[in-house]
Amino acid sequence: MHHAGLLALSLFLTVLGQASSSGVALPDSVDVRVLSKYQLRNLECFSPGGEVVLSNGNGERKSLPASGCRPLRAVVVGTKLRLAAGPQSLGSFERVRLRAGDGLFVIRGGGRLSRKYRGSLFLESEAGGIKVVSRVALNDYLKGVVPSEMGSGAPYEASKAQAVLARTWVLVRLGRHRGGGYDFCDLTHCQSYQGADWERPSSSLAVDSTSGEIATYEGEPIEVFYHSTCGGHTANAEEIWGNVKEPYLGGIADSAGRRAYCQGSEHMRWRFAATLGKLRSALAKTPETNPGKVLRDVKPAAYEQSGRVSRVKIIGSLQKEVSGEVFRTAVCRALGWNTVKSTWFTVHRQKGQIVLVGRGFGHGVGMCQWGAKGRALAGQSYRQIIEAYYPGAKVEKR
């Protein structure tokens, strides 16, 4: 635990505002709900240097010099947060805003949970826990996103491609969680963001060197999709989801000769096996794929041009036919996302089990992250990488 002299933050009572949904200009900052997957009933936070200033919204302010401060503690009591610095109580609040003298916070929760975040923090009592929202400068947000999404050791040009696409995604999706009082969550539902802990010099330079750049098609920001590993051919978005018909998301061959650019991925080849009973239980949790009391077989009914399964027949007490992506999602939600890693698979029966042998990881649409790494290692620039995965798109400065 850190000692008194390390606390530096300004504390203000505040009301969380609605996120802007403007798609015209890039925002200066974004509001990101962090520590989303944790149910926190108490936490501690601190920041190097400075003082603590408490404002209760009635014009009353109280300053605590750095030498007398302790890590700020927040505990849920009823519907409010009780705040204290060392033995000194700072009061109870529904919402508070924390500002750090050096713009960096460390948050500690239960067990080994410890994260660093840039910008200011909003703490709010919600459903018996603490909701934490980080208001962070756009480029600082991207410096946490790029290595978290692409991997900390990615080649520089691949990281630059990821930075441009992540920035474009922000512009198009700003305010995705407006109803919750913030723009984005920190999970892969939005973009994976683990704060300043994941920042790396190379990926941070990739963000700075592409500052203000986005990917466009005919002058408009593109709809950005990316995934881990395509397996050698990206997917047509319309065949995966039906209602996504952008011309730059049609799918491409992603190989140099007979070698896929994503050959280095551990997910290039995979195998999943399950008994009929286990698979039935998984499919039964989704109404669209529920086979009834008995599952007898699973068979591909149609294929995409890339080789992915576009339709799956579920043969059981009930007969179902669903898209390959609906089938994959149903299994993964029940058994984990490392089971049916993609819709590019063949189906076999072995010793009473259904066995899927496949390639790739993710939906397959847009940029293949491992393919981008392979392209970068082959000498392609970030602009060439983006233009390859989104034919007709180009990189522009905003």
Short précis:
With 398 residues, the chain is α+β, with helices and mostly antiparallel strands. Helices cover 21% and strands 34% of the residues.
Distance between the termini: 43 Å
Largest sheet: 8 strands, mixed
Number of strands: 27
- Could you state the oligomeric state of the chains shown? single chain
The radius of gyration over CA amounts to 24 Å
Briefly note the structural class of the backbone. alpha+beta
Shape: globular
Strand percent estimate: 25-35%
Strand order of the largest sheet: 5-4-1-9-12-13-2-14
Instruction: Give the proportion of residues in helices.
Output: 10-25%
Low-confidence stretches: 1-23
Q: What does this 3D model show about the protein?
A:
The chain is an alpha+beta fold. The protein folds into three domains: 4-138, no CATH class; 140-222 and 366-397, no CATH class; 270-358, no CATH class. Helices cover 21% and strands 34% of the residues. The protein has helices at 138-150, 156-173, 201-209, 237-241, 276-284, 324-335, 369-377, 382-389, and strands at residues 9-12, 29-34, 42-46, 52-55, 61-64, 72-77, 80-85, 88-93, 95-100, 104-108, 114-118, 120-126, 129-137, 184-185, 213-217, 220-221, 226-227, 255-256, 259-260, 270-275, 295-303, 309-316, 319-323, 345-350, 353-358, 367-368, 394-397. The strands form seven sheets. It has an eight-stranded mixed beta sheet with strand order 5-4-1-9-12-13-2-14. A hairpin with a 2-residue loop joins β18 and β19 (259-260). α2 (156-173) crosses α3 (201-209), α2 packs antiparallel against α7 (369-377) and α5 packs across α6. The chain is globular and about 65 Å long. The two termini are 43 Å apart. The relative contact order is 0.13. The model is unreliable at 1-23 (pLDDT under 50).
